[in-house]
C-alpha cells in the first residue's frame, strides 16, 4: 500500500514534468488505451470482458462510468495546467466525501452516522480553508485550477456511486477497469487531436515517462489494489490510501519546487483528518471503498 500510494501520489508530478512535450490529455489518453489493451490481453479469457458487453444494462452503465472517468481525468489535466500538483493531489481525494454523502441518500444500508457527518464536516472545512488560503505569492496560482481538481474528485465520487448502485457492482474488477480505461482513451485522445494544440516530442524522457504511467500506474498498481481488496480489510486499506495525497504534496514540493503555504497545509490536515474519521467510523465493511 505504501508503494501504491507513492505511485499514485507522484503521477501528477510525472504528467506535469513532460507537458511541454506532450499535452496532458494526450498523455492520459495514450496510457489509458495501452493499459486497456494489456487488461484485455491478460484477462479477457478469464473474465470474459468483451462478452459482458452484450448485456445492454451493463453496457450503458459501463459507458456512463467511462465518460465520468474521462471527465475526471480531463479535469485533472485542466487542474494540473492551472495550479500546483500538490493541490491536485489533495483535492482529487475529496472523492470519498462525495461518495459517502451520495450513498447515504441512495442506499439504506449506507446511512452515515453522526461521527461520520462530523468527519465530512471537518473535511469540507479543510477544503474551504486549503482553497482559500492556498495562494502562494511566490508562484503563479489559479483558483480555477483548484476548482477543477475538486470537480475531478466529485466526478470520481459520482462514478463510484454508479458502480456501487448499478450492475457493475457484480461485474469483475478487470471488466470495470477496462471499460473506464477504454472510454477514457477514446474520449481524451479524440479531444487532444481535434481541440487542442496537439504536440508530441517523443524523446527518451517522454517515452520512459509514458511507459511508467501506463505499465506501473494504469495497469500494475490498479490490479494490485484490486487484489489487496480481496485479501485485506477495506477499512484498513482505505485508511492507508490517505497517504496518497500526502505523497503527492511531498513529490510536488521536492521535484517541482512547489511552495506549500501554512494555510494550504492546515487545510490539508483538516481534510485528511475528516476523511479518516469518515472511514474509521463506517458502520459497514465496504462502505468506504472507492
Order of helices and strands: HHHHHHHHHHHHH
- Gyration radius (Cα, Å) is 18 Å
Oligomer: single chain
How much of the polypeptide forms β-strand, as a percent range?
under 5%
Which structural class do you get from the secondary structure elements? mainly alpha
Strand segment tally: 0
The best one-word shape is globular
Q: Please work out how many helical segments DSSP would assign.
A: 13
Give the uncertain stretches in residue-range form.
283-290
**Helical coverage, percent range:** over 70%
| Average pLDDT, all residues | 85
Largest sheet, in brief, is: none
Distance between the termini: 15 Å
Structure description:
This protein has 290 residues and is mostly helical. It is 77% helix and 0% strand. The chain has 13 helices and no strands. The chain has helices at 2-17, 24-47, 49-52, 56-80, 85-92, 95-106, 114-133, 143-165, 173-195, 204-231, 234-240, 243-255, 262-280. Helix 2 (24-47) packs across helix 10. The two termini are 15 Å apart. Mean pLDDT is 85; it is low at 283-290.
Q: What's the gist of this structure?
A:
With 290 residues, this protein is mainly alpha-helical. The protein has helices spanning 2-17, 24-47, 49-52, 56-80, 85-92, 95-106, 114-133, 143-165, 173-195, 204-231, 234-240, 243-255, 262-280.
Amino acid at each position: 500500500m505504501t508503494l501504491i500510494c507513492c505511485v499514485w501520489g507522484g503521477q501528477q508530478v510525472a504528467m506535469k514534468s513532460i507537458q511541454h512535450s506532450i499535452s496532458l490529455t494526450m498523455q492520459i489518453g495514450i496510457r489509458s488505451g495501452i493499459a486497456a489493451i494489456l487488461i484485455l490481453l491478460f484477462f479477457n479469457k478469464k473474465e470474459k470482458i468483451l462478452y459482458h458487453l452484450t448485456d445492454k444494462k451493463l453496457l450503458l452503465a459501463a459507458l456512463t462510468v467511462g465518460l465520468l472517468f474521462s471527465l475526471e481525468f480531463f479535469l485533472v489535466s485542466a487542474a494540473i495546467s492551472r495550479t500546483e500538483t500538490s493541490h491536485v493531489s489533495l483535492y482529487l481525494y475529496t472523492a470519498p466525501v462525495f461518495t459517502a454523502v451520495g450513498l447515504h441518500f441512495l442506499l439504506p444500508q449506507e446511512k452515515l452516522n453522526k461521527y461520520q457527518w462530523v468527519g465530512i464536516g471537518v473535511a469540507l472545512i479543510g477544503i474551504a480553508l486549503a482553497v482559500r488560503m492556498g495562494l502562494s505569492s511566490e508562484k503563479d496560482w489559479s483558483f480555477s485550477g483548484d476548482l477543477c481538481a475538486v470537480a475531478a474528485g466529485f466526478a470520481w465520487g459520482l462514478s463510484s456511486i454508479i458502480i456501487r448502485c448499478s450492475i457493475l457492482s457484480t461485474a469483475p474488477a478487470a471488466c470495470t477497469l477496462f471499460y473506464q480505461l477504454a472510454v477514457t482513451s477514446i474520449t481524451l485522445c479524440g479531444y487532444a487531436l481535434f481541440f487542442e494544440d496537439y504536440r508530441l516530442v517523443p524523446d527518451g524522457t517522454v517515452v520512459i515517462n509514458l511507459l511508467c504511467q501506463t505499465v506501473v500506474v494504469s495497469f500494475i498498481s490498479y490490479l494490485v489494489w484490486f487484489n489487496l481488496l480481496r485479501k485485506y480489510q477495506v477499512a484498513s486499506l482505505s485508511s492507508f490510501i490517505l497517504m496518497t495525497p500526502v505523497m503527492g504534496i511531498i513529490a510536488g514540493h521536492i521535484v517541482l519546487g512547489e511552495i506549500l503555504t501554512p494555510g494550504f497545509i492546515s487545510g490539508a490536515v483538516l481534510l485528511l483528518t475528516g476523511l479518516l474519521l469518515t472511514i474509521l467510523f463506517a458502520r459497514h465493511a465496504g462502505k468506504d471503498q472507492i
